[in-house]
Amino acid sequence: MTSPISRGFRGRRAAPGAAKLPPGQYETHDFPVLSAGPTPHTPLATWSFTLTGAGGQKARWSWAEFEALPHEQLTTDIHCVTKWSKFGTEWSGVSIDALLAAGAAMGVQPAPYVVAACDGGYTTNVPLADLTNGKGWIAVGYDGAPLPAEHGGPARLLVPHLYFWKSAKWIRELRLLERDAPGFWERLGYHNYGDPWREQRYAGDE
Amino acid sequence: MADGLTTPASTSSTARPLAWRRATVTRIVQETPRVRTIVFDVPEWPGHRAGQHVDVRLTAEDGYQTERSYSIASPPEDARISLTIERLEDGEVSSYLVGELRVGDTIELRGPIGGHFVWDFSDGGPLVLVGGGSGIVPLMAMLRHRALASADVQRALPARLLYSSREWSEVIYRDELARLAADDPTLRIVHTITRKPPLGWTGFRRRIDRAMLEAFAGTAAERPRLFVCGPTPLVESVADTLVTLTYDPATIRTERFGPTGGT
Predict the structure, then answer these.
(1) CA-to-CA separations, A58 to A118, B57, B202, B249, in angstroms, rounded
(2) Phi then psi for B56, rounded to 5 degrees?
(3) Between 20 and 30 A from B30 (CA), which of A30, A60, A123, B12?
(4) Total domains, chain A
(5) Are B107 and A4 an interchain contact pair (Cβ–Cβ within 8 Å)?
(6) How far apart are CA A103 and CA A97, in angstroms?
């Protein structure tokens, strides 16, 4: 079906040379907050991060141990399924590659699927291949400061090439799985994979 | 938030795509100076639950398209879809929808979207709603849905709304809210007007705070279904306060908006 013209709608065009937006997105300079419930505030003294293997093996880091893992800085664009995109956001954190390497030394082996589990009960699923080779991080810093709680601090998953609901806030665990297991929004009508460039917003989008 | 692991599966890889549908404007209601309700006729609308939203797509003559999400204001019982939209400064889409769109015009919609910030009779009560500004919209869909229930169902599902507006003239659905409360002893509505209350106002005139929520929300032991919608600072503060008042975080559902720049 061809879209009808919206009479009198001119809209805004990106400036020539501006970074490209995925379909249906607009650029924002703010950093909107979206969460389905209250913001958890877990003290760093009781915070830990767990990597769980498909066979139940666990590697666990306290906050101090996690901070001792190698951290990277990166600048990336982010795209929220609620239509906003933000260019050039600056993060710091531990790459999933580094985490898996540290986990392997503690007996946790890779598996093809991952579920991120968070304070507050949120979950989301991502194929492992979308987190490795420099594509995923556990972010603990934003814009040169510790990640604020409303944006997922102390630590959130960062998978910037997928819609931002995959970048789970308040992450506490990555579970490696042999089979895919849809998470919170993925079971409430959102797309299982969520590629913004293919506009995979909702279940059934191609 | 509800544990994702206990949420019933509602989708799978075989789900049908949410189709874009033509939506024709049948009526426009000016709610406040900056807010309009637009009523759309959407053929073959699949139905929705109170609290869900739609995506709106606009297309310019040269093919340029943009999309935004808006909460549905109408209850599931309505054959037509109402969106209540606040004109935002510099809003690419809201300024068009509030300033330009006329009866007879056609845009595109798809939905319904969102399966968490929703309420049905079967979800139970008491229903406790806290809203700020245009955050009232999905809460109004719930109140309208509830208003269509039998008196028995209403008694079993008592409801309260705490609604914060800056000025009395900015209170969206002001008359309808007054009618709903007047008709229904099991519905309690409390306004707080933070900047410009009307002459002779004796109600709250400050931002929603702990004392207000303590007096309003009932006891945590009642396990109310809590829905909080509004600007991010209001939602953060209300949700945090509710947690400190020992409401189960899993029963507090939130929707935040702004500041989002170009909405």
Answers:
(1) 16, 46, 59, 28
(2) -110, 135
(3) A30
(4) 1
(5) yes
(6) 10
Taking the Cβ of residue A30 and every Cβ of chain B, the question of whether any pair is shorter than 8 Å is answered with yes
Instruction: Give the pLDDT means over successive 10-residue stretches in chain B (263 positions).
Output: 40 72 98 97 96 96 93 97 94 94 97 95 95 97 97 96 97 98 96 95 96 90 94 94 94 78 28
Of B92, B113, B134, at which residue does a domain stop?
Answer: B113
Q: Tell me how many domains chain B contains.
A: 2
A71 by Cβ neighbours in 10 Å (0-12 / 13-18 / 19+) ranks as middle
Residue A119 pLDDT class (50, 70, 90 cuts): very high
Give residue B1's identity as a one-letter amino acid code: M
Q: Are residues B203 and B222 in the same domain?
A: yes
* Nearest beta carbon to residue B92 from set A11, A82, A187: A11
Structural domain harbouring B69: 18-113
Tell me the CATH number at A82: 3.90.420.10
| Domain termination residue (choose one: B95, B113, B131) | B113
Residue B195: count of CB within 10 angstroms of its CB: 10
**A9, B17: Cβ pair inside 8 Å?**
no
Q: Is B246 on the interface with A (CB under 8 A)?
A: no
Q: A203, B15: Cβ pair inside 8 Å? A: yes
What per-residue confidence (pLDDT) applies to B1? 38
B231 touches chain A (CB under 8 A): no
Nearest C-alpha neighbor of A87 from the set A156, A153, A31, A147 = A31
Q: Taking CB atoms and an 8 Å cut-off, how many pairs form between chains A and B? A: 176
Shared domain check, B182 and B143: yes
A102 within a domain of the structure (yes/no): yes
Amino acid B9: pLDDT: 42
- pLDDT number for residue A41: 93
Q: What is the pLDDT of residue B8?
A: 41
Domain assignment present for A18: no
